[in-house]
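Q: What structure does this chain adopt?
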Amino acid sequence: MKKIFTILVFSLLFVGIVLSQEENFIMDRNNTEKLVSPGMLDNHMISLMNQYNISGVSAAIVKEGKIVWKSSYGLADRENLLPTNDSTSFLLYSITKTFTGIGLMQLYEDGEFLLDDAINDYLPFEVVHPDYPEDVITFRMLMTHTSGIKDNFTVINSLLTYNVDTDLELAAVLEDYLVEGGEYYGENTSFTNSRPGTYFSYSNVGAALGGFLIQCISGQDYRSYIEENIFVPCGMTNSFFRISECDEENIAMEYSYSESDYEASGIKCNPFYPAGFLRSDINDMSKYLKMLLNNGTYEETQIIDSDILNIMMTEYNHDIAPNSGLFFGYDPDNDLWGHNGGFYGVKTGMFMDKDEDWGVVVLSNGAGEPWQILFMLYQYAKDFEIFNITEIIIDDTDHDLILEQDESIGLDITIRNNSDFDFENINAQIICNNDLISFSDDNELIPFLNSGETISVPLDYQFNLGSFIEGFEEEFIIEFFCDEVLIDSTVFTLYFGNADVLLINDEEHVYRNRNMSANYFKESIIAAGRTVREYDINLFQIPSYETLLKFNSVVWFTGLDNETIHDVMKNEEQELIQNFLNNGGNLFLSSQNVSDAVCGTGFITNYLKAEQTISDYSGTLRIVGIDTVLLSQQMDFYITGGDGTNTQYSPSCISPVNGGEKLFNYYSSQNGAGVYFDGDYKLVFLPFCLSSIDNQFDRIELMLRILQFFDGYLKFETENISDDVVEIYPLPVKNNEISLYSNASFVCDIKIFEVNGRCVFESEKVCLPNMLNLNELLPGNYLIRLNFDNKVVNKKIIIAE
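A:
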């Protein structure tokens, strides 16, 4: 069994999440008709929890002021078999620091202090760095973790209490930790060796001191201040710093994981509570997140000024404190602000995109980090639509799914309501800004569409298509109105005319929109000089093999799909491919999981001409061509890193059978990484996704060779022209001139491509040797292609500044 795809998402120690509630779109898990996400979302969540040993999860997404998804999974208490629910109280750990930060900045907004004031001017005891006693420590340093205050976890852990509240006072513990002579003080353990303000050192004690400063400045106990100024105005009724205030039957137990078993570590408390010991549930955190996304305002009540909130989510000094705001952190990989939290037994995360107005919060108990869960929900938050298309059925005049000139075309479009609202009298208007496309009626009425339901009768649009010469792709928009108010819109594209290549997009994975695997295939096909029609098999009805035969070549790919979660290469898809190949089709199948899904079947051995030898290859992810095979000779590339999708998590090894031939090996091994077949039909089968190849030029080169093989240009009995025949210099290209030298005279056609596949230079019947002037090209990386009677030389060139 293959492992699920993993990515290291965060480079930051602290980041966070929050959510809100008003006109909420809420998922009801007790009603299976109200599943907001595709079914894969639940499957992925459960799979990731199992993989990373997470006992329970509560999670939510807020978008445009509404909860568009919320759910709970697993067990809050394994001993008592108590399931996690939206009222389960989780320890937030370091997300607590954002509350401390908001509290401090409320006092800043009131003019009680300035960020560069010395904290000692507001404390009843002095905090002095022992190595730099003359240097002041400021509020800004404290809130960006550059104060020089250091965490001594021997002390912090010794002060933990289990299942009861601490009886130690925040002020006394801080003084004992930070002032010379105190019980917990140490010159080398309470402070770093760096001058205040010059070095980032994440500090829980420093955050706790920030909480104590709230107490000192406001004259109010820290906990009561946060309750009065954040919890109450945000409607947060289940958020507490004391264990005794929580519902003891609905607290998430904190778990470690060892030797295939969860071990309860007790419900923790600590006197440094402003740094990490707030407990809350997903309902309250949703409200908090809504406030943050709404620029500091919750239901007409301003919690904090929007400009001050923006200051908190602005990097202070990248050289000193990269990715650090004021008790908020920045995730540069995903361009999000927030905070995460984690210690023994609990892991949490809260992140938001204020520009796009969405945020995600995940609360979990167990050993594993929830980054994969967060990352998955980011993708769903970005792509969420109130109404989305689940299927499009095309009815063209000759029923071949090729939309040709002068045809009358019908579209039956199925729509789903993902929100928590029931809608009536929805006017669905379709728009296409192309004069060749004329609708007989561009409006359809949906009488009602309840929450979580799909319309019983598809929308029916009819249009006539005018005359055209070349194929083209066009965008369609459906806008949904209720009482003449635009509620939502959704977009899809159709291809008109025929194309050289049919690209079957068979990727179901929840990350598909982020990986954009189809674009890598399309760019490579276009760079190979072919036209391409993308066909999303998950959206459109499955085509017939007669439709496939109308294309010179079919390229079929699956992406991150895992056979334990997705139905990779369903039976009806296998049957379609079998019929297509039986009729002499040309197929390039690129998938890291197809061999797992069809292993041991007649489909893989009789049609894909392969058998799987290793399901999860653990060696170097480097692919090397076979010297004696023109289709792959002199090819050498990685399927990870570079400018590829970096989505290769468990490639298979395959060997040829029944007339198939080996195409690639994994580096320094005889483990097969590809099979081709040249018989009654032509086939290339790769157990990895072309989009994962680390270099655009190698993707283009491989696609070019495969399509030439399909077209009969690349004959295995014919010797191809070697790259050594033509010498290109100087490299990098200087002064925009490039020399093409050959020992013999040749006539060739020349094309130069950008890395995105766009042809930027073209010249026919060029005699070699020759010199080209490239004044029109900007500095950068290019691919030059020389075509000699259908024999091709490709070389990478760089044009210098």
